[in-house]
Amino acid sequence: MKDVQERIGEIITILSQAYPRSRTALRFESPFQILVATILSAQCTDEKVNQITPALFRKYPTPSDFASADPKVLEQEIRPTGFFRNKTKSIIGASKKIVEDFGGKVPDNMEDLISLPGVARKTANIVLSSSFKKAEGIAVDTHVRRLSQRLGLSKEQDPDKIERDLMEIVPKDDWLDFNYMLVNHGRAVCPSRKPRCPECQLKRLCPSASEFYPGNELNL
DNA sequence: ATCCCGAGGG
DNA sequence: CCCTCTGGAT
After folding, report:
1. In whole angstroms, what is the distance from residue A149 CA to residue A157 CA?
2. Calpha distance A187→A191 (Å, rounded)
3. What architecture (CATH level 2) is domain A4-22+139-218?
4. Span A31-132: which CATH code?
5. pTM of the prediction?
6. Closest of A29, A205, A28 to residue A38, by C-alpha
7. Nearest-nucleotide field for A43 (CA, C1')
8. Is the pLDDT of residue A125 over 50?
């Protein structure tokens, strides 16, 4: 198997053709909406988030509306997404800080974004890339973590360490799309449980393909 | 390391 | 029943 630097270019070329420049599956119409939707998406499918956000954003159009929301009511409104107590605290807390410290506007930089309660680098990276078209890092979620490990791009477990490894390997021009490409490939052919290596366009470049489907080690 | 938490798949 | 879904705070 070639080393990481030799494989990463081919991996990005293949994936960028397989999943031509779409973005997150989350529905949103503003930086604030993608922030809330991303908080809701923790340990939950995007589809489930999309089912509740239209009504939510109609009822709470601005950060001030969420800041003054009744926590008990909001908890019930976001209940289907799971972790509803934590997510309610995060949404109301982040909204208050946006109103009080950032003039009602979602910050457009990493440092200010991760100062919001319930917002760490993953969520901040999603907001920056999908709303501001900026990439200060690479969003590492469950899909990026799983595929990075399977593809041998990182041996780390901690998302922040994986992100550091990826930032060394992935050309900066591709940072913005890298999360999207791996998420979609994860959903399409490389899910957590039963990766479908035989139909995977990356099997020739993937150290784990032979692990799941013995025989692929001949395809180097 | 553990907790938060619902919903769907196998 | 166990695992997983675009995590983050303690």
Report:
1. 8
2. 6
3. Orthogonal Bundle (1.10)
4. 1.10.340.30
5. 0.94
6. A28
7. C5
8. yes
